[in-house]
Amino acid sequence: MTEHKTGLEDSFVLKGHKKLRCGYTTGSCAAAAAKAAAVMLLRGAPVEEIALETPKGILLHLLIEEIEMKPGTGPYPERVRCAVRKDGGDDPDATHGLLVYAEVSRRQEQGIFIDGGEGVGRVTRPGLNQPAGSAAINSTPREMIRKETEQVCREQGYTGGLSVVISIPGGEEIARKTFNPRLGIQGGLSVLGTSGIVMPMSEEALIRSIEAEMRMLTAAGAEYLVITPGNYGEAFAGEQKGIDLTCEMKCSNYVGETLDLAEELGVKGILFIAHIGKFIKVSGGIMNTHSRNADARAELMAAAALRAGADASLARGILDTGTTEEALDLLAEGDGELYGRTMEEICTKVQFYLDQHTRGSLETGAVLFSSVRGKLGETETVPDLIRKINGQKERIHL
Which residues form the signal peptide (predicted)? Predict the structure, then answer.
């Protein structure tokens, strides 16, 4: 038996020395299932495979599963339900392998009516891709579904309307492990995709998730945000008294992109709460803190110590350390004032590069901490930012 070819056999990305396979989005699955169901509804015969042109221009050939054709009064079925299995390629995708169903039926009103069923989330807050109350089927998948089903109607000479309901059994449980509950999408997964194709380990997808959360917060009235790179920062922020975390979110390694998005969305200020291991890099102007882009943690710590008055021997010792925690231990063994001055130097440089990146378009500040030593320092702007963050609480409607 020959292996089914989807059209993605030559589509891959290189990460390091690995060739990673591309996949197709939940949006492509939904559109393909809807197209196949519409064909079966209007022709009255099963379809085993469907062709789908993605917005990226790649033609997919997808297998159709779980076909259910409810008999009607005439030769054609009353409604048809079928599914396409999600293939995320080599991307670590929570939806990989799920069946995405479309149920299609005729309706008297013209046009294509699209809704979500089991396992597809509902938007509960403004500021997201779809209005509150709508199924969490984003605009590109909606357009793909509409385009494909309208084309089928034209080909079959059908002039009525169609109802398309997308469902993802098991989606509600999986959605709990995603950003959806945090974004205000309840009860299931989002049907996503702007290109129709999943690019493995895509930075763009991560940045878009940051944008989605920021849009939701600004739509709720937030002007000032608390942002942490990851779980350590989030946990440390939660332990701090006197900082309202209603508008807290994560930015992963994408400090520069987060600042750019904030400027675009009209955010007035950002307070970063970050582990020294991440933000020591920002003190050198490194705005993507992933280790594959740049490291220089020891070099930047040594430079800060030298500016604070350390001797060459201590600086060389810092350069030989493997982690920022080790470097802090070495600093702490000596002059306590030198340790404090070094943290001040780092905070000053962090503020300098945040300001340089934003060109004064928004207020920024940072609190730096260590997992072992707790709070290490903060930029001069922090007290005023905290006051503004706390002052907006009553205006936020989440």
Answer: none
